[in-house]
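Retro notes (design track)

What went well: tokenization of the new backbones is finally stable.
What didn't: we kept losing track of which sequence belonged to which structure.
Fix going forward: every design gets posted as structure first, then sequence, in one message. First example under the new rule, 184 residues:
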């Protein structure tokens, strides 16, 4: 059973909202043969312009599902997120089936979909690597890495952090600001 932990920012999570989210997230259980002690972390935010942003993260042993959606209607945002999560599950299942045709313990993780689902899993987009690059990581600070990223016109940039000697990543967020991922 997938249990929902729902947190609201600038909004009170009413029983109606809670039951809608739990019902929709509960539909994802049909894709798994065994999903004990699984928690869906749901964050709901509302803004002054009446838009609602919903984020759902479902961490599991072999797979982490995550989607977010902003919409004028909170319930519509939840429905759109469930569609995204279902696509992620089908894509992962297709990848596993394609990669491991013989019996593998990972295959038991995902339940078989019945033909009534109507979706052709092979038609889902694949994650084929079409290009590979190698380069030296240069020591720099995060500000210099952001400048390099912008000069290249990329959404992210990998570099060796001059202060920590670790590999770090800067990336451009959807809101136009920048994020930093540091490795241990």
């Amino acid at each position: 059973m997938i249990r929902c932990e729902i947190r609201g920012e600038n909004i009170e999570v009413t029983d109606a909202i809670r039951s809608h989210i739990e019902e929709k997230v509960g539909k994802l259980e049909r894709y798994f043969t065994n999903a004990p002690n699984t928690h869906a972390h749901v964050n709901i935010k509302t803004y002054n312009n009446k838009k609602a942003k919903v984020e759902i993260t479902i961490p599991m042993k072999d797979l982490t599902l995550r989607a977010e959606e902003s919409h004028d209607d909170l319930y519509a945002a939840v429905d759109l997120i469930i569609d995204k999560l279902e696509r992620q599950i089908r894509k992962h299942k297709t990848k596993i089936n394609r990669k491991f045709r013989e019996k593998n313990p990972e295959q038991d993780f995902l339940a078989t979909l019945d033909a009534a689902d109507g979706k052709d899993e092979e038609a889902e987009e694949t994650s084929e690597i079409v290009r590979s690059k190698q380069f030296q990581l240069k020591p720099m600070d995060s500000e210099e890495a952001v400048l390099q990223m912008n000069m290249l016109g990329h959404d992210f940039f990998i570099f060796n952090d001059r202060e920590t000697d670790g590999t770090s990543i800067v990336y451009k967020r959807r809101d136009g600001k920048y994020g930093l991922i540091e490795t241990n």
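Added context from the reviewer: The mean pLDDT is 81.
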